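Demo today. Your pick:
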Amino acid sequence: MARASLEVKKSIVEKLVTLFQNYSIFAIGNLHGMKAKHIQSIRKNFRGLFEVYVAKNTLIKKALEKIPKFNEHIEEISKYLTGQNILIFSNTNPFSLYLLLEKNKIPSEASPGDIATEDIIVPAGNTGLQPGPILSKFSAAKIPTKIQEGSVWIVKDTIVAKKGDVISADLADILKKLGLKPIMVGLKLKMAFDGTVIPGEVLAIDLEKYKSEIKTAVEYAINLAFNIAYPTKEVLPLLISKAYMEAKAIATISALPIPDILKDSILIAIMQGKRLFEEINKKHPEILGEK
């Protein structure tokens, strides 16, 4: 029996060594709260993008010790090998992998003790439930109800838990009976390795913040390039437009006989002549005589 157990462990370590060698990156995810059906869904939904494998921490460490490239990192990686873990093997950029997992969480039924990942709202309408003991649970959850056509109706949309609230047993029962799956379940990465150890908090980049910062940087760069007349493809149209406007202004004031600006030059000459007439008429009306 003991020999059989050793053979199983040896087989797992060999499998892990193969996975570590076949993929350019790996990540350690927290398995807490994940059920077998969640792992199956992840395997199915992301087949071809990455591979997941569950093993004991001691066996993971043994596999790492067999691969020279991890020698100088084992101590740092081992800090994340606590609790229940799942390994994700991929050739994807670790930051892209993190975002992919965050965007593809799986809706799941709430269990007692779960933490609400978002505000949980039960919608108004016919629940299809028969009146009975469930009414007291609705009442305890402050969900307004009425009896109509022999079934329980929820009178209005009601928030039954705020984001971060702990789900009680009664509320979990109500949500299950209503067929709601309000908890978003997904793999939470503790770290990733792509040659160096990247902690989970570093992987959790704020994409919108980075987009905003890049947009601001681009605006500053274009503004600087425009002011120093640096001819990039983004700035050239603006510089040409500015040069055209300035050249046109000079040509207009100089009354250059260019067809495109001749009309403006004549208008300016008329206005200047009119102002000159008014000025002379004001100071020396005798020169110009009566109007």
About this structure: DSSP finds twelve helices and twelve strands in the chain. The mean pLDDT is 89. The first helix runs from residue 2 to 22.
